[in-house]
Amino acid sequence: MRRSDREICDFQEIVEIMKKCDVCRLALHEDEYPYILPLNFGMRITGENQIQLYFHGANSGTKYELIAKDNRVSFEMDISHCLITNEETGNCTMSYESVIGQGRIEIVPEEEKYDALCCLMEHYRAEDFPFNTKVIPQTTVMRLTVEHITAKRRKRR
Fold first, then answer.
1. Which of 13, 48, 99, 157 matches a 20 to 30 Å C-alpha distance to 80?
2. Rounded CA gap, 142 and 113, in Å?
């Protein structure tokens, strides 16, 4: 990381940033260019600092074709955006908190879908929402097991 003064190394701090995010951008391998899509997500911490992210979608689409070819993915999420200007110098920058990582994504088996969807609802603070379970067969759920993660922060001064 070029700006080590902005690096966040504490695992719990990184998790707290992720908890505040409402979109995770997922990058998949496509032939000529990366394929990026914004997704709602849920998160679980398992074992020793192991992060798993959950996503959902319809049962068909480009993302599933790409995952079947290569399940290595990258992801990004960010919050706390604020423009910082200095009228004297004419300079400007942004404050932010961001998380970037890589891992492997897989389709969640049918018997694990309900719990994974509950995890997604929990992330958006709606864990008690009685969602329609009849749509589960028409829903594909994915689990990303994070293998590497970094985070940065630039605070407003």
1. 48
2. 9
